[in-house]
Amino acid sequence: QVQLVESGGGLVQPGGSLRLSCAASGSIFSINAMGWHRQAPGKQRELVAHITSGGSTNYADSVKGRFTVSRDNANNTVYLQMNGLKPEDTAVYYCNANGCSRWFRDFNSWGQGTQVTVSS
Question: What is the pLDDT of residues 2-19, one digit of tens each?
Answer without folding.
Answer: 999 999 999 999 999 999
